[in-house]
Each structure stands twice: as C-alpha cells, then as structure tokens.
DNA sequence: CTAGGGTTAG
C-alpha cells in the first residue's frame, strides 16, 4: 500500500483507490496508512475519490478524516463536500459547509439552489437565488428550473415572473428543461394563459411539458380543456404515461364524467401502466366524484398497500356521499392498520361528520386529533368544526371556537359561520360576521349572496338591495350556475333557463309535463326569494329553470327508463330544486344523483340521502 | 446535475 501511494501520481492513485476500495473503511485506512503524504496530495486524492462516491457513510467518514488532517478550510474540498452532501439530499450539512466558504463559486450556488428546492425548502432556495443575483453571479440553466420549481411550490407568481425575466436575460430560455419548468411554474401559480404562451413557443415539447400543461388545466378547473389537451398530446404522437393519466382522471372526477373515467381506467389496464397506489387512488377518487361509491369502494378493497392518502380519499368519499358512520369506521380501521392520520385525514372525517350531522362524533374526533394524535388543527379543520357546530345550531359554540383559535381565522372560517347563520336565520350574528368577512374577501360573490338571503328571509328588502349594490360596487360578480351531464361520451353543460341545446323545447316540455304530478304530490314552488339561495341562478323570470332541472329533463328524455341520472352542479343546490327533485325521483321512478358544490344528493323514491340536512 | 403525480373545509 505504501508503495502505491509513493509511486503513483495523485490522479492515478485515486483511480486505483476507486477501483480497489469501494468502501470508506478501506479509503480511510489507506489514507491513515500514509501519514507522510503531503496534505495537498491527500486533498487531491479525496476530491477524485469523492467523484466516485456512491455511499453516504463513505462520504461522512471521509469528511471526518478531512477534519483530522486539518483541511477544513480548504475551499475546494469544502465545495466538493457540499456538492456531495447535496447529492445525498443532506442539504443541511451542505448548507453548513456553504456558510464556511468565503466566496463560493457559481457552480456551488447553483447546486445549493437546486438542493434546497429538491428538499422542498423553497424559501431558502429563493433566498439563495436572490443573494446570488445580488452578488452579480448568474444562475446557470440547471439552476433556473429549480428556482422556478420553488416559485411553483410557493405559488409565488410574482417571483416566478421576475425569474422568467432573469432567465431570458441570461440567455437560458428556449431550453427544453427551463421552458418546461416555466410552463409548470405558471400552471401551478394559476396563470394558465402564461403557461400556454410559453408552451406554444416551445420548439420541442416532451411528455413532461405536455403533462405540466395538462395538469395545470386540471388543477385550475379547466376540465374539458384538460381532456382536449390530452387528446391533442396523443394526436401529436406523444405517448402518455401514468402521470399524465392522473390529471385526466382528476378532470373526469371534476366533471362527473363517469364513462370517460371508466374508459381511462381500462386504458390504464390495457396499456399496462404500473397500477401503483397513486393511480389506484386517483381512479378511486374519480369513481367517487362521479357518484359511483360502489366502484370506488371495490377498488379500495382490492388495493394492496394502502397509504395515508388512499385511506383519506376513501374516507372523504364516504363523507361527500353522506355516509358519516362509514367514514368514521374506516378511520378507525385505518388507525388499527397502523396508518397515522394527518390533518387532511381529520378534515375528511370532520367534514363527513358535518354532512351527516354527527355532532358528538365530530367533537370527539376533533379532540382525538389534538389530544391523542397531537396534531395542530389547520384552518380546514377549524372550518369543518365551525360548519359542524353551526349547522347543528350551536352558533355560540362555533363563535367561541373561532375566538379561541390560535391562528387568525380567514374568510373561509367566517364564511362557514355565515352559512350556518343562513340555515338558522340568525341575522344579528350574520351582520357582525359580514364585517370581518368583507374586510377579508370583499369580492367573494357567494358570501354577499348568503348575507342577502338572510335579509330576504327576514323580508328586509331594503338591505337585500343594499347588498346587491355593494356587490356591484365591489365588482363581486355572481357566478353563473350550471349543471353538467355526461351523454354519449360528451359532457353537456346546461345554464339557467338555457335554450342553447337543440332539444331545448323538449326539455321544457318535459318539465311542464312533470309539473302536474308534482303538484299532485304536494309540490308548492318556493317562489320566495329566500330559498333561491344560490347566486343569481333564480328569479330570472317565472319561466326560467334552474340548470339541474334542465339537466334532469335531458337525462329523462335521452336515457332508457330506470337509468340512474348523474348531474354535477357548480353551486349549491337550492331548496326549491331539492324539493322538486325528490318528487321527480318518485314520479319517474329513477335514482337521481346530484353532486353539488359540497356533497352528493341521492334522490330515490321521493327522499334524498342527505336527509334534508345540508 | 436537471421533471410532470393521488386525499382536504367553505
């Protein structure tokens, strides 16, 4: 060994060491065996060996050895070590070394920016990026995608735009990876138009860029665009993989497009994509959101190696379908199976309790979360609790909870409470809440509508008008209600009093036809403004029809008797329609599934699965 | 040296 060290040049020596001694002990022993070796030579050897380093423990031991040799202040070695630490995902260790280097080279800055971003420490990554720019150093084309990834992770569109400008200045645009990262950043920050602009300008588009775009559409609510873009991708000769399928499944779920979703399920099987837990969860969730709880549950049972997300998704499914007890049972099973819940799981459970009116159970699980699992409740957990308490009429308890929250309540919390005020027609509380609420979110149309409906319930028409004007002044535009129904591999959309469908006359005639038997069953149209508690979708004219009724009429005309009708609605179903659909289900003897903004309503034999608790 | 992904309240 000693002869080796003395005879070979450092590079050859390093190469020899790499070949012969792949593990750290040998390396360290060899170095220790030659105490007379000049320090710079050892440094050189170690640098070369590190390049071949494949084991973290080897790295750590070598690092310790370096300290023993008193080389810790050599920038070159430190840089090498920092880079190695990053490659082993030990960003903290790398960071400590980085701080010790007087003026780190550009490359190390880039490596650190990448390292932090990869580790999910987006703020640190961007902080470093800014510091690097301040020093007049330019990030390289490998660092930009990571800086953009950090912006995407933080949904920081403003910073993303700035970095976009920088990279153009640095001449790093028109690079496949940089552009793909740009597309992804814009898509994740919700600026889908900007994403599309970059995407369209790309000379070359790989599967990843397509997938980023598709996922951007899906996650920003452009559901039919998602499906369209997927077809476009296939048309352009790019073969999808399981990742791109996930976005498409999401879109199907959002649209309630069961047939399309089923098609993708079989597509996954036919093409032989790996049917891993992510794909299984996505398909399961799609089935559930399309109203097919049975299929979702089947898949859940068949899926081996269920993880937290998979369990949570199934719990959420029971929740939106109104099966609170089953959601709770599943939660208990999950815990028994040794899977530790997180705040999302509890959001699912609490929301399930809320939809099913399981007040005591909800309280118990909230307590379980904080006390037994020691999970700090997030805003979403508080929102569920406020909703649970409020719905059940325990308004003051809900207020207590909000006042004692350790975090600042946001608009959604007050919104929950306002929703409860509407159910219980509590005007005093509603007015107090509205102040907070409109301060936090002045342009939210839904909250204004809620308040206006509470006034209307008390026949306070002047105030109703005031709220209306307030909305106009603030530019809080009402969201148009619509209902979706899948037919013949298409998703059809019906708006309020829609006459755009070729069959529109038939649809209205069908509703007319139903009017008599409905009346016979005791239906009284609730023309009172109060119950048209959804956005503007009502009150247009006596002849206007809510979108879900048109969708139902369409389904009745175009499907064979007995077929379940599935409707997806963007807003909350109104009380009048809820009454009407119950009766329709009885008259036509059909199951009518309506998914509104919050949950499923399964109408059958004149009753709804929500038990009118919604 | 780089990348895209499944669950969540209102």
Automatic annotation (TrEMBL):
DYW domain span: 522-614
Keywords, in A-Z order: Repeat
An annotated GO BP: RNA metabolic process
GO MF terms held by the record: zinc ion binding
Stored InterPro entries: DYW_dom, E_motif, PPR, PPR_rpt, TPR-like_helical_dom_sf
Gene3D superfamilies listed in its UniProt record: Tetratricopeptide repeat domain (1.25.40.10)
Repeat (PPR) residue spans along the chain: 105-139, 206-240, 307-341, 342-376
Keyword check for Repeat: yes
NCBIfam families given in the database record: PPR (TIGR00756)
Family affiliation: Belongs to the PPR family. PCMP-H subfamily.
Official protein name in the record: DYW domain-containing protein
Source species taxonomy: Eukaryota, Viridiplantae, Streptophyta, Embryophyta, Tracheophyta
